[in-house]
Write a structure and sequence with these properties.
- The protein has 12 helices and 7 strands.
- It is of the alpha+beta class and 298 residues long.
- The protein folds into 2 domains: 34 residues, no CATH class; 227 residues, no CATH class.
- Helix 3 packs across helix 11.
- The chain has a 7-stranded mixed sheet with strand order 2-3-1-4-7-6-5.
Length: 298
């Protein structure tokens, strides 16, 4: 069993980083922790405006920082729609041409985030009809509306395909960045945003996740939380507890600035302490509210 850090005692709160190092689960962390005042670490004022496009090096660094700060099990992926074959990165694998097989788009995303592979998916590479319709690689038949959950599509013929790669090593600027993460990890990311940006976060809970995680962020310029659809689990081996969080390119700089600013804040996923304690220490703003309502503060 891993040894406990000398500077950690059972009278102190353990962060998730400490817990993972010690091999401890949540049940073992029933220790008191010190509350941090919301006034000290609360969200900054003013909306996170979309900033000018960052450089490729900056986006690669975003990938590294997201993995570190959110302790992700797989890499965030850079996703770009392809308008012509010349846009395909030279290092990209084309499943049918290079490997003599077909895959679904969710499997391409899995290869990028798990194995670090850059994958270009054109119409001929696909083994699932939804992505080719959603991305406008073929016209969506009207009959599909009779049995499928509704979803938006790109204009037919605008793109020839899509490419994905780990964000930390991608050779291209993404249209969208997609994270596969646990709810608690996404919560840590969301709570680092300014409260004025809450309306920019949208969600969708029905298939197809390959469409909603790419098409809608690009069309709306908003953040999207999407539940991975059955194909993600059955064919791409996505963990049952994961969600997909999509970020348009223009939103990445502001989002990452917020994450960095709150790296050690009260809502940081990496530093968040876990404890189960009655009458736990109250942040000052809790006390102020309780007093105004005639409630106990001690």
């Amino acid at each position: 069993m891993p040894r406990m850090r000398k500077d950690v005692t059972m009278n102190e709160p353990l962060s998730r980083r400490d817990a993972l190092k010690l091999g401890l689960g949540a049940a073992a962390l029933g220790v008191p922790g010190s509350a941090v005042s919301f006034a000290e670490t609360g969200p900054a004022q003013g909306r996170q405006e979309a900033k000018p496009m960052s450089t490729l090096d900056e986006f690669n660094k975003y990938g590294e920082d997201l993995e570190k700060h959110l302790m992700l099990r797989t890499s965030p992926i850079a996703v770009k729609m392809l308008e012509k074959e010349a846009d395909i990165p030279k290092e990209a694998v084309r499943p049918k041409k290079d490997r003599k097989y077909h895959i679904a788009q969710c499997q391409a995303f899995a290869l990028s985030r798990r194995e670090g592979t850059t994958v270009a998916m054109l119409k001929e590479d696909n083994w699932c009809p939804t992505a080719v319709m959603a991305y406008g690689l073929v016209k969506k038949p009207e009959s599909v509306e009779q049995w499928s959950h509704p979803y938006d599509c790109f204009e037919h013929g605008k793109y020839i395909g899509i490419v994905s790669a780990p964000l930390k090593s991608a050779s291209f600027l993404p249209d969208v960045v997609i994270l596969y993460a646990k709810p608690a990890q996404i919560r840590g990311l969301l709570l680092s945003m300014k409260v004025q940006d809450v309306p920019l976060v949208k969600g969708h809970f029905f298939p197809p996740s390959c469409g909603w995680s790419v098409v809608n962020p690009m069309k709306t310029g908003e953040y999207w939380i999407v539940i991975p659809d059955p194909g993600e689990y059955q064919r791409a081996l996505t963990e049952e507890g994961d969600l997909m969080f999509s970020v348009p390119q223009s939103r990445m700089p502001a989002m990452m600035a917020g994450l960095k600013q709150n790296e050690h804040g009260a809502f940081s996923y990496r530093e968040h302490s876990m404890f189960m304690q009655p009458d736990f220490p109250l942040p000052d703003f809790y006390k102020d509210m309780f007093k105004s309502w005639g409630m106990d503060t001690e």
